[in-house]
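Two records follow; treat each independently.
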Amino acid sequence: MKKQIYRYKKNLGLGAMSALTLSALLMALPLVSHAQEPVTGVENPDLLFTSSDPKLHANKQVVYHIVKDLLEAGHWEMAGKYLSKRYLQHNPNAASGLDGVVRYFVDVRKVQATPIPEKMAKPVVAVIAEGDLVTVMYPLPVRDKTTGQLLYTTTWFDTWRIVDGKADEHWDSALKN
C-alpha cells in the first residue's frame, strides 16, 4: 500500500510539473503564433507578366500595363486602351464603367500622372493567369495609425477578367472607405 501511495505522489508530482510546463508554453503560444515571414516582392516583377501560352501572355500584358501605366504612373487618359467601356468594378469605392473608374482615380483620389517607368517599380509577389483571369499579388505593409511604425506585412490581391484584349471586370479586397 505504501508503495502505491509513493507512486501516486511521484506521478502527481510529474503531472503537476508537466501541467505547469504546458501552461507556460500555452501562455507563450500567442506571442509565437503572431510571428510571420514578411511578404516581399520579387526582384524583377516585369518577368512575372509573361507566359509561354500566347493567350495567357496577352492577358498578362494587359494587366501589366494597367498596373504600370495606370496604377503606378497615373496615366488614366490611356485607360480606354486597357479597360473595356463596361468595366465591372467590385471595389466598393469605385464605380463601374470606364468613365466611373477614371473619375475615381482622377477626381476622387486626385492621382497625378508621372512618367511611365521603363520597368515596374511596384513590388509584386506573384502573377497567376488562368483562362481569362489574371491575379496580381502585392506586399501590403500594415502600419500603426498613430506612429506609422510597420506592424506586419500581408498580401493584397487584384484580379481582372480579360475580354477581347481589355480588362472587363475587376476584384480586390478593398473595404468601403
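The next record belongs to a different protein.
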Amino acid sequence: MLETVLTLLTICFLARMSPGPDMMLLIHHAGCASTAEGRGFLRGAPGAYGCVIGVCIGLTFHVSLSVLGLAFVLKSNPFFYNMLRYAGAVYLLYIGYRCFMDRGRLEIGSTSGDCVAVTFTQGLKDGLFCNLLNPKVTLFILSVFMQLVGPDAGLGEKAVYGSVIVLEALFGWGLFVLLLNTSIVQRVYGNYVTIINRVTGVILFLLGCLIFFSG
C-alpha cells in the first residue's frame, strides 16, 4: 500500500506541475493580488488561497465519483472493468504524448495592471467551478486508479488513495501560491516548463504502457 501511495504522490505531483486550467487560474489570482498589494510570501493573496480550497473541493468530487464508480463497475461487471482499464491506459498514453510534445513557455508575473484582486470567497468559487467543470480531471483520476489500484482493493483502501490525491493538491497548490512570486519559481516555469512537461509526459506514457505489458 505504501508503494502505491508513493507512486500516486509522484504522479499527482508531476501532473500538477504541468500547466493546466487550475494553474492558470491560480497564477491569475495571485498575480492580481501581488499587483494590488505588493509581492511577498503571505501578502495579498486571499483570492488565490480561496482558489486552492475551491480546486480541492472540486477535486474531492471527482475523486469520490471515481472511487464510487470504480466500486460499482467492479461489482457489476469485471469484464467492463478490464475494458475501462485499457481505455484508461490509452488515455494516459494520449495525455502523456500531449505533455511531451508541449513546448509552450509559461509567463508568470505578466498579469495586467488593471486586474482586480478578488476575495477569498470569490476565489473559492472560481477554483471550484474551474475544477468541477473539467471532465478531464475525472478521466485522469479514474485512469490512474485503474492502473494502480487492484480490483481486490476495498472501498476503504480506495478512499485512502483518494484522500492522498486531495491532500497532495491542497499542500502542493498552497505551497505553489506561497512561492509564486519568488524568483526561483518564476525562473523554473519561465525556463524549464518544457522539461517539466516532457518528464510528466514520459511518466504518464510509461504508466499507460504498463497495463499492456502486465496484462
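Discussion point: The radius of gyration is 18 Å. How would you locate this feature using only the C-alpha cell line?
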